[in-house]
Design brief:
Elements (H helix, E strand, L loop, with lengths): L28 H13 L15 H11 L14
InterPro entries: DUF6540
Pfam families: DUF6540 (PF20174)
Length: 81
């Protein structure tokens, strides 16, 4: 099992399974580049099969958000997750 992004853009907000959206920050072009760098360097969760799963996408998001904290200047204030 591994994440395989769609080759085209997907509007997840219009998806039938979409539940909620939280606006965490408005980023500049420079900050967007930082976000891309951090997300590209954080490997997504993967496993050979469901029994071998040790991590999920929520854990990946928390690791990325932690990297984007005050020290990186992308999030304006600490967030409680």
């Amino acid at each position: 099992m591994r994440y395989q992004p769609s080759p085209q853009s997907i509007n997840v907000v219009s998806s039938a399974s979409f539940l909620n959206l939280y606006h965490l920050a408005t980023v500049t072009e420079q900050q967007a580049a930082t976000v891309q760098q951090i997300t590209a360097s954080e490997p997504p969760p993967r496993a050979m099969n469901r029994a071998a799963v040790k991590d999920n996408c929520q854990g990946w998001v928390l690791r990325v958000m932690s990297s984007l904290s005050l020290s990186r200047g992308v999030l304006c204030q600490p967030r409680s997750f």
